[in-house]
What does this fold into?
Amino acid sequence: MTPFLENGPDLVAKRRSLSKHDGGLGSITEKPCAESCENAGSQNEPTHHGDHSRILKFVPSTIAHTRFLITATLLCHLILALVLVTTRLLSPVLARDEAWRLDSISHGESAGNPYRRSALVHLPFMPTPANIVPMPWAEQELHEKKSLLRTHLSTLGRTLVAYSGGVDSAYLAWAMREAVGSNMLAIIADSPSLARTLLADAIAFAKEEGIPLEVISTSELDRPEYARNDGQRCFHCKDELFMAMEELRVARGFDTIAYGVNRDDQGDFRPGQKAATLHHVAAPLLEAGLTKPEIRQLARQAGLRIWDKPASACLSSRIEYGRPVTREALTVVEKGEDAVRALGFRQFRVRHHGEMVRIEIARDELPRALNPAITDEFTRIFKALGFKFVTLDLEGFRSGSMNSLLPAEQISGRAG
It folds into this structure.
């Protein structure tokens, strides 16, 4: 009770003065404050009205102050709990956003352009994907997959790696060289369906990373079943490649052939996987459960420059199904894509439809492609290559868009 007293000595003196008078309602005997208050509370002892007011005058404000402190403390704890819960809930979303950003590179979003982001990362208090540190569980999962890959690679023995220079096959060749050293050899097929710029870049990358590489020739264009360009064209291409690699494996004493198919490829129409199964080709990236974004992330962690390289299929995939694949048609497509690349576009496809060319440009680059000066340049380039009609696909770039021309039952059969 002491904190509520004001002018304690004066109050005691006053009590002594009052005790000289006869009892009445105002009289009070001198007692210690604690005893007086206790008796007053337990025996209803009369207390001078003035003293009562002096003692209790600050009680209401003190109680209010205490309540305020308790309420503020509870609010602080509540806010802290909400922040912790929100962070726990949002962190996996933001970590996945980094993976989406890596995956978006394969759809043509370059480092100089805004990456595709979820709405969350546009909030002012949220970090950008480039600054997001993956959650420990995501890092642990990726680390486990990487360890599983390395273990699997070390069990394959002397291995030939089907290499094209793309992200998947390039990372596989690098990882194989890391795991088994000189007991591996990357094989790249030099054929008319491989653009010269991609061949040169693939050779340069292998040289930079010290990956043993050999260039072989394949003759898929001499196969009528390939040249007729139906829905099984990719099967015949891979069948030709793996047959050539099998001959080399036997001649050089290698144990295994491996290629860079990944988990995401299982959701696409890829008849070439049937050829890989037929030739008993190993799929280490798939066995490790790695997705395309995860492969890009591992390649970036390894410091490989190809980690953000745009996806690129063979030139034959640019020609509409049913139109024969010829060297002339492949040359026209390659020259057209070289010209579009020279204009500064990063992710695109030149689709050959006979007299008409259909140009697919990544959606983030499409506004620039629609500029009248650029469209005039497209017209000049492709009419010079022999096309009568030059079109720009307003849907933008779509990987495997030619597959939409195939019967649904053929696509649903996947590699069958």
